[in-house]
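Reminder to self: tokens first, then the designed residues, so the page reads top to bottom the way the pipeline ran.
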């Protein structure tokens, strides 16, 4: 079985993105001065990640990178959706049920990156 072991967020304004994700998820960010581009290591309560200065133009313009959308497990999507909007993010796809599994929603951070939230709930309908 393959599992995700590391994720990265690209941002045109990495300091703003650090603040956004720290506020939303409580992630810990450590700037790594040993890397030749602006780069922060991310520690979560699970998977590790990184946040870096976007190396190319913002998609969908011609760019050298593409990305997967990562979804983060949370306790309460509704509360975080309000917080995301209050911090300059937006709802890309409102909360919907994955029947018998979870509630899911997609958001866009202030820098244009899409991410998902899911709230496990076997009663979701």
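Designed residues (125 positions):
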């Amino acid at each position: 079985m393959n599992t995700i072991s590391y994720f990265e967020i690209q941002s045109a304004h990495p300091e703003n993105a650090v603040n956004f994700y720290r506020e939303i998820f409580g992630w810990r960010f450590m700037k790594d001065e040993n890397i030749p581009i602006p780069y922060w290591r991310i520690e979560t309560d699970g998977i590790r990640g990184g946040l870096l200065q976007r190396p190319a133009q913002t998609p969908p313009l011609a760019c050298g990178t593409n990305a997967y959308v990562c979804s983060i497990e949370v306790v309460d999507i509704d509360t975080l959706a309000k917080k995301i909007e209050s911090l300059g993010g937006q709802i890309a796809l409102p909360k919907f049920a994955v029947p018998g599994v979870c509630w899911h929603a997609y958001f866009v951070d202030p820098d244009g990156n899409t991410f998902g939230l899911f709230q496990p709930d076997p009663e979701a309908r």
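The radius of gyration is 15 Å.
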